[in-house]
Amino acid sequence: MIDIKPMIQDILPDVIALRQDIHSYPERGYKEIETSRKILERLEDIPAINIRKEVAETGIVATLGAEKKGPCVAFRADMDCLSLQEETQKPYASQRPGLMHACGHDGHTASLVGAALVLGRVQDELEGPVKFVFQPAEEGGAGGLRMCREGALEDPKVDAIYGLHCYPGPDLELGNIAVCNGPAMAACGTFEVNIIGKGGHAAFPQACIDPIYIGIQIGNAFQSIVSRMTDPLDSVVVTITKFQAGTALNIIPERASMEGSIRALKNELLQKTMKDIENQAKHVARAFGAEVDVTTKEVYPALINHEKTNGILNEVVRLTGKTAALKKNYPPMLGGEDFAYYTQQVPGTFWFLATRPPDEQEYPFNHNPKFDFNDDALETGIEMHCETARHFASLWSQ
To answer: What are the C-alpha distances in Å from 9 to residues 16, 24, 323?
Structure first.
């Protein structure tokens, strides 16, 4: 195979410029119009590439070698930003108040564009089709589900899919490649509890049904779901993130509401926990004479890495001389990822690209207003996409 490292170095300045441009002009889910345009400007210069536009509104599916008979591998990048005010002070910081690429999707997108540019130069080496999936609305919008429903994995049919996510955590450093066996990201759900009590004067609680006190008891009961109703060997988190009630210091309010998040590494455990939340809230409220309305919702399923695609990625790491950088059997994370929808359809692997410089132990984490994707990680992201694509057909047949 041709040495692609000089090609990566050749396109790297443009990829960095693209990443920083996308960072400067972030767009929310299903509104990534300018981001899609900037991606298409690069893709349309690649010879013989087939491009589908406006998949799931702003998504793109581009294919190299669509006519090739070998197995088809896909790579996915997410494009949307978060609603957050940036505080990085970088020269390319967000120009849109209240919007920011605080999760690294700009880096994911740039890495995949870079891979397409390089593979476009060596597409004669490819034994099967390679798809580049640029997806909208990962941040809670289930863009991955819509991409699947609108045929991103069809025509040609995808045999396996890969995705990466930047990770700036303290246990990995720039250049590391981390792969989870089995569960990689959690199944996610939300809950909302509305408590209807009886309001009155703060000096006469006996004449009231205090929804704040009842809400506190419900919150405590929720923690017993984790500590006393779940197998200790299973991972589940129930977190109350919002509690609203009251208007004055001397009034017991009529109502209180709480909302929160549920995380589990098994889809069936998420479903069980949602039922437990509903039951606990109703039983506690009834014990105090209050009414309660409970709503639970599944957001994303668990993301499960496939043994075969993991094995291929591990072998690609070895073939490219990066074995020392590989962190096998990396522990799963309880964040949510809609890449899970792809792995429900075809075998896939979601791996973590380390971005923390080795000399900076304290480094801003994802979803932090001071977070920024480290451009020094782009080279590894591009290379791993490219080498996985180039070796996929032969390794898949084995």
So the answer is: 11, 23, 22
Give yes or no: residues 121 and 148 share one domain: yes
Range of the domain at 217: 187-300
Each residue of 353-382: b (16+ CB within 10 Å) or e?
bbbbeeeeeebbebebeebbbbbebbbbbb
Q: Would you say 163 and 76 are in contact if contact means Cβ atoms under 8 Å apart? A: yes
Locate all alpha helices (DSSP H) within the chain, ordered by sequence.
Answer: 5-24, 33-43, 105-121, 143-149, 211-228, 267-287, 307-319, 340-345, 378-397
Q: What's the whole-model pTM score?
A: 0.94
What percent of the chain is helix, strand and coil (3-state, nearest 5)? 35, 25, 40
CA dihedral 10, 39, 26, 188 (to 10 degrees): -100
54 has pLDDT over 90: yes
Question: What is the arrangement of strands in the sheet containing 291-300, beginning at the earlier edge strand?
Answer: 236-245, 255-264, 187-196, 291-300
Band of pLDDT at residue 284, cut at 50, 70 and 90? very high
Question: Same domain for 230 and 325?
Answer: no
Statement to judge: residues 15 and 51 lie in one domain = yes
- What's the confidence (pLDDT) of residue 125? 95
* In contact, 232 and 221? CB cutoff 8 Å: no
End-to-end CA distance of the chain: 19
> What is the C-alpha separation between 116 and 97, in angstroms, rounded?
32
Average pLDDT of the chain, as a whole number: 97
Residue matched to tokens 């590894």: 380
Specify the DSSP element, H or E, that contains 157. Answer: none
Read off the CATH number of the domain in which 84 is found.
Answer: 3.40.630.10
DSSP state of 78: E
Supply the pLDDT for residue 251: 98
For 73, 124, 179, 204, 285, the CA distances from 52, given in Å and listed in that order, are 17, 22, 30, 66, 52
> How far is residue 311's CA from residue 396's CA, in Å, rounded to a whole number?
10
Taking only the tens place, the pLDDT of each residue in 18-39 is 999 999 999 999 999 999 999 9
Give bridge partners of residue 263 from the DSSP assignment. Answer: 188, 237
Distance CA 325, CA 357 (A): 14
Assess contact for 266 and 183: CB atoms under 8 A.
Answer: yes
**In terms of residues, how long is the chain?**
398
Q: Which two tokens stand for residue 164?
A: 């990466």
